[in-house]
Amino acid sequence: MRIETCFLFDLDGTLVDSVYQHVLAWNQALDAEGISLSVWRIHRKIGMSGGLFTNQLLRETGREISDAHVAKLGRLHAEAYGRLSGQIRPLPGAKALLDTLTAAGIPWAIATSGRMETARVNLDALGVDPDRVPVVTRDMVKYAKPDPDLFLAAADRLGKPIETAVIVGDSIWDMLAARRCRGLGVGLLSGGYGTEELERSGAIRVYEDPADLLDHLDEVGGRR
Prior knowledge:
Layout: E1 6-9, E2 16-17, H1 19-32, H2 39-43, H3 50-61, H4 67-83, E3 89-90, H5 94-103, E4 108-111, H6 116-126, E5 135-136, H7 149-158, E6 165-169, H8 172-180, E7 184-188, H9 195-200, E8 205-207, H10 210-215
Parallel strand pairs: 1-4, 1-6, 4-5, 6-7, 7-8
Antiparallel strand pairs: 2-3
Helix pairs in contact: 1-4
């Protein structure tokens, strides 16, 4: 019996070149509230849920942050990200990769830790209509990455067992979530994490960007 593969994609840094805009948006939000955190430390947290981001923030700054303050930081981040939205572009090969999967009849979905408020900017840049393509955002699940809820929900939207999923992401949080739900993690370098980091977190293959993955799609079962 042949197992039919499906693909589940992260969004920021995986299909869309937007990681550093998120970093800058968080930096602006934190600065507005008088919270000092080095930009590189912010980058290391992109891809995890906003709740975990603030937990890490507490540990690194030693500050207590109320729920209301957390919500305010989220709003400030979304507003700053909106101001940077004109810079957002699909990563090389992203559209071609999705088109190739669609033409081959291989189901795919998007699962992002971002809320639809910010994800829609990326989807628009990518040309993906969430009314026609399964898109699971942070708003739709109880926990975000590194918990597996987003990928489990995306596989469910496709009607496919998670064990048949190739889970493509750019961060260690994607790979940890993929490992926890028993999907096959494939890492991309286009979000700023290194090969060894991604492999230690569970990636079975690592490629430069969507274009590189497309060139090697047969290595991860992307064929009919």
